[in-house]
Design a protein that fits this description.
- The chain has 156 residues and is mainly α.
- The protein has one domain: Four Helix Bundle (Hemerythrin (Met), subunit A) (Up-down Bundle).
- It is 67% helix and 0% strand.
- The protein contains 7 helices and no strands.
- 21% of the residues are buried.
Protein backbone atom coordinates (compact mmCIF):
# COMPACT_ATOMS: atom_id res chain seq x y z
CA UNK A 1 0.00 0.00 0.00
CA UNK A 2 1.37 3.37 -1.03
CA UNK A 3 0.54 5.84 1.80
CA UNK A 4 1.30 8.89 -0.35
CA UNK A 5 -1.15 7.80 -3.04
CA UNK A 6 -3.76 6.87 -0.43
CA UNK A 7 -3.47 10.38 1.09
CA UNK A 8 -3.64 12.03 -2.33
CA UNK A 9 -6.68 10.00 -3.39
CA UNK A 10 -8.41 10.55 -0.06
CA UNK A 11 -7.97 14.32 -0.34
CA UNK A 12 -9.39 14.30 -3.86
CA UNK A 13 -12.36 12.17 -2.78
CA UNK A 14 -13.00 14.46 0.20
CA UNK A 15 -12.86 17.58 -1.97
CA UNK A 16 -15.21 16.20 -4.63
CA UNK A 17 -17.64 14.75 -2.09
CA UNK A 18 -17.79 17.96 -0.03
CA UNK A 19 -18.09 20.19 -3.09
CA UNK A 20 -20.67 18.13 -4.96
CA UNK A 21 -22.54 15.72 -2.69
CA UNK A 22 -22.45 16.96 0.91
CA UNK A 23 -25.81 18.76 0.76
CA UNK A 24 -29.26 18.23 2.24
CA UNK A 25 -30.93 17.75 -1.15
CA UNK A 26 -28.46 14.97 -1.92
CA UNK A 27 -29.15 13.12 1.34
CA UNK A 28 -32.88 13.44 0.65
CA UNK A 29 -32.37 11.76 -2.72
CA UNK A 30 -30.26 9.02 -1.13
CA UNK A 31 -33.16 8.32 1.24
CA UNK A 32 -35.44 7.87 -1.78
CA UNK A 33 -32.89 5.52 -3.37
CA UNK A 34 -33.02 3.37 -0.21
CA UNK A 35 -29.26 3.31 0.16
CA UNK A 36 -28.05 1.48 3.25
CA UNK A 37 -27.19 4.19 5.82
CA UNK A 38 -24.00 2.34 6.76
CA UNK A 39 -22.59 3.12 3.29
CA UNK A 40 -22.89 6.86 3.83
CA UNK A 41 -21.66 6.48 7.41
CA UNK A 42 -18.51 4.67 6.18
CA UNK A 43 -17.91 7.24 3.43
CA UNK A 44 -18.38 10.13 5.86
CA UNK A 45 -16.08 8.49 8.43
CA UNK A 46 -13.41 8.15 5.76
CA UNK A 47 -13.80 11.70 4.48
CA UNK A 48 -13.82 13.24 7.95
CA UNK A 49 -10.74 11.32 9.00
CA UNK A 50 -7.47 13.11 8.45
CA UNK A 51 -4.68 12.00 8.56
CA UNK A 52 -5.50 8.81 6.72
CA UNK A 53 -2.11 7.33 7.62
CA UNK A 54 -3.42 6.07 10.96
CA UNK A 55 -6.31 4.10 9.47
CA UNK A 56 -6.10 0.34 9.64
CA UNK A 57 -6.26 -1.71 6.45
CA UNK A 58 -9.76 -2.94 7.35
CA UNK A 59 -11.05 0.62 7.72
CA UNK A 60 -9.52 1.64 4.39
CA UNK A 61 -10.96 -1.43 2.69
CA UNK A 62 -14.42 -0.73 4.16
CA UNK A 63 -14.20 2.89 2.98
CA UNK A 64 -13.19 1.78 -0.51
CA UNK A 65 -16.10 -0.70 -0.63
CA UNK A 66 -18.50 1.99 0.59
CA UNK A 67 -17.32 4.38 -2.13
CA UNK A 68 -17.77 1.67 -4.75
CA UNK A 69 -21.29 0.98 -3.48
CA UNK A 70 -22.18 4.67 -3.43
CA UNK A 71 -20.95 5.19 -6.99
CA UNK A 72 -22.78 2.07 -8.21
CA UNK A 73 -26.05 3.20 -6.61
CA UNK A 74 -25.68 6.68 -8.06
CA UNK A 75 -24.98 5.32 -11.55
CA UNK A 76 -27.62 2.58 -11.51
CA UNK A 77 -30.46 4.16 -9.51
CA UNK A 78 -30.00 7.93 -9.55
CA UNK A 79 -28.94 8.67 -13.12
CA UNK A 80 -31.74 6.76 -14.89
CA UNK A 81 -34.37 8.53 -12.72
CA UNK A 82 -32.64 11.82 -12.04
CA UNK A 83 -35.34 14.13 -13.40
CA UNK A 84 -38.06 12.43 -11.40
CA UNK A 85 -35.97 12.33 -8.23
CA UNK A 86 -35.02 16.00 -8.59
CA UNK A 87 -38.70 16.82 -9.28
CA UNK A 88 -38.20 18.51 -12.65
CA UNK A 89 -39.67 15.83 -14.92
CA UNK A 90 -42.40 16.71 -17.40
CA UNK A 91 -43.67 13.15 -17.00
CA UNK A 92 -44.89 13.93 -13.47
CA UNK A 93 -46.16 17.52 -13.58
CA UNK A 94 -48.04 17.14 -10.28
CA UNK A 95 -44.75 16.43 -8.46
CA UNK A 96 -42.78 19.10 -10.27
CA UNK A 97 -41.11 21.95 -8.37
CA UNK A 98 -43.16 25.12 -8.74
CA UNK A 99 -40.58 27.65 -7.52
CA UNK A 100 -38.77 28.89 -10.63
CA UNK A 101 -35.42 29.49 -8.91
CA UNK A 102 -35.44 26.07 -7.31
CA UNK A 103 -36.46 24.49 -10.62
CA UNK A 104 -33.55 26.16 -12.45
CA UNK A 105 -31.12 25.13 -9.73
CA UNK A 106 -32.22 21.48 -9.99
CA UNK A 107 -32.02 21.57 -13.81
CA UNK A 108 -28.44 22.82 -13.58
CA UNK A 109 -27.58 20.14 -11.04
CA UNK A 110 -28.96 17.49 -13.38
CA UNK A 111 -26.45 18.62 -15.99
CA UNK A 112 -23.39 18.41 -13.71
CA UNK A 113 -24.20 15.41 -11.49
CA UNK A 114 -23.12 12.77 -14.06
CA UNK A 115 -19.68 14.37 -14.42
CA UNK A 116 -19.38 14.66 -10.62
CA UNK A 117 -20.21 10.96 -10.21
CA UNK A 118 -17.61 10.05 -12.83
CA UNK A 119 -15.02 12.16 -11.04
CA UNK A 120 -15.84 10.48 -7.72
CA UNK A 121 -15.59 7.09 -9.42
CA UNK A 122 -12.23 8.00 -10.95
CA UNK A 123 -10.81 8.97 -7.55
CA UNK A 124 -12.32 5.89 -5.88
CA UNK A 125 -10.54 3.76 -8.50
CA UNK A 126 -7.33 5.66 -7.77
CA UNK A 127 -7.78 4.84 -4.07
CA UNK A 128 -8.38 1.14 -4.86
CA UNK A 129 -5.20 1.02 -6.92
CA UNK A 130 -3.24 2.62 -4.07
CA UNK A 131 -4.70 0.20 -1.50
CA UNK A 132 -4.53 -3.01 -3.50
CA UNK A 133 -1.93 -2.63 -6.27
CA UNK A 134 -0.99 -6.32 -6.43
CA UNK A 135 -4.61 -7.49 -6.62
CA UNK A 136 -5.49 -5.15 -9.47
CA UNK A 137 -2.41 -6.14 -11.47
CA UNK A 138 -3.28 -9.82 -11.15
CA UNK A 139 -6.85 -9.10 -12.28
CA UNK A 140 -5.64 -7.54 -15.51
CA UNK A 141 -2.83 -9.96 -16.39
CA UNK A 142 -4.91 -11.79 -19.00
CA UNK A 143 -6.72 -8.75 -20.42
CA UNK A 144 -5.76 -7.67 -23.92
CA UNK A 145 -5.16 -3.95 -24.19
CA UNK A 146 -6.68 -2.22 -27.20
CA UNK A 147 -4.44 -0.30 -29.57
CA UNK A 148 -6.68 2.76 -29.49
CA UNK A 149 -6.88 4.87 -26.35
CA UNK A 150 -10.23 5.12 -24.60
CA UNK A 151 -11.16 8.71 -23.67
CA UNK A 152 -11.78 9.35 -19.99
CA UNK A 153 -13.57 12.45 -18.74
CA UNK A 154 -12.18 13.44 -15.36
CA UNK A 155 -14.70 16.21 -14.79
CA UNK A 156 -12.26 19.08 -14.96
Amino acid sequence: MNQGKVRSSARKIRDVYNACFNYGWFYGILDELKLDPSVIRDVRAFIDRDPWDNMEDGELSRASDALDTLVAVLKNRLLPNIKELMRVSNLAPSLRITDRDQYLKMRLLIEVIPANIETLDLYAEELRRALFPEELHSLFDDVMILDTPVPVFAGK
